[in-house]
Amino acid sequence: MNDESTRTEPQPETHPEKAPVLPETELFEEDEPLFPESPDKSDPSKPPPKEEGAFRSAFLTQAILSLILAITVILGVTFAPEPAREFLALVRKTAKNDFSFREDLERTAGELITYLNQIEPIQRIEPGPDGTASVPSQPEEPSSEPAAEDPSSGGQGGDFTPASSGSLPENVTFAPVVYIGSLTFPLKNWRQTSEFGFRDHPTKGEPEFHKAADFAAAQGEKIFAVADGIVTVSEESGALGKHLVIDHGNEFFTVYGHCDRLIAQKGTRVRAGDVIARVGSTGDSTGSHLHFAAQLQGLYFNPAYLFPEKLHAAF
């Protein structure tokens, strides 16, 4: 037998192909989840989200500031009432200005005032430090008594009848007047029967200029002082019958006519809201009512400017 025929050739050594091994840095840790869960808000051990933390911080800051402001106001009202009132007024003004529509409202009001100023300048009445009214200084000497009122302009209790024509008296103005401060309306129960302006006299039927506003009210109804002042007239005379005149300072006067009874006497210092008289129908009158007039620097003006919310229909 041939040895060459039975000899087998050695086979090359073969090795199975090894799978690649990832480095350790690319492997996930056993305890690390593949998709981390969102933090549980109900778990108190976990910190709150950033948004919630910011809200809490802002709320806490505002609460602390409000507490400090409240303590400051209380101390101010107790130990320094005047500066405290001015500060509170500033706070209220700032709060009122914090509205988006206020700019449009103020712009519209400014345009209206500008238009009115083109006709006649607006007069402003401001309460002084002693409670009396103050107005911008004028070059003329101030008078100590109101200008005389024409007896023919005495208030009537009848309904208002506009006059078709007439001449404007020298002691009358249509200029707007703004009172800076609070006022008390002279009556509690009333109905306006006559406005400021031209009208036909209720009894004579002739055109006249009514220098006041008339308010029908029950006989004996209380009449209140609209502002602080001193009574300069308390008498019965002429078309106004029993009437009062109050000097509020700096040429600002109010007149209360056709009273049934006069309570405040001449020289009496009154406060806003004090009962000064009772409604009646004395003098040149056709019914129980109050003849209410207002005068500034010798000129009668529309009393509706003092109470725009109550007498808005008079404009």
What's this model, at a glance?
22% of the residues lie in helices and 23% in strands. The chain has 315 residues and is α+β, with helices and mostly antiparallel strands. It has two domains: 63 residues, no CATH class; 182 residues, Glucose Permease (Domain IIA), CATH 2.70.70.10.
Work out the helicity level: 10-25%
Q: Main β-sheet: number of strands, strand sense, barrel status?
A: 10 strands, antiparallel
In whole angstroms, the N-to-C terminal distance is 145 Å
Enter the CATH topology name of the largest domain. Answer: Glucose Permease (Domain IIA)
Order of SSEs, N→C? Answer: HHHHEEEEEEEEEEEEEEE
Total DSSP helices: 4
Structural class label: alpha+beta
Gyration radius over CA = 42 Å
The CATH architecture of the largest domain would be Distorted Sandwich
- Count the domains: 2
> What coarse outline follows from CA principal-axis ratios?
elongated
- Poorly predicted residue ranges: 136-145, 148-156
CATH superfamily of the largest domain: Glucose Permease (Domain IIA)
Mean pLDDT: 74
- The proportion of residues in beta strands is 15-25%
Q: How many individual β-strands?
A: 15
Can you walk me through this structure?
The chain has 315 residues and is α+β, with helices and mostly antiparallel strands. 22% of the residues lie in helices and 23% in strands. The protein has helices at 3-6, 50-79, 81-96, 102-119, and strands at 123-127, 133-134, 177-179, 191-194, 197-200, 207-210, 213-216, 222-224, 229-236, 242-247, 252-262, 269-270, 275-279, 289-296, 299-301. Strands 4, 7, 8, 9, 10, 11, 12, 13, 14 and 15 form a ten-stranded antiparallel beta sheet that branches. A three-stranded mixed beta sheet has the order 2-1-3, with no helix packed on it.
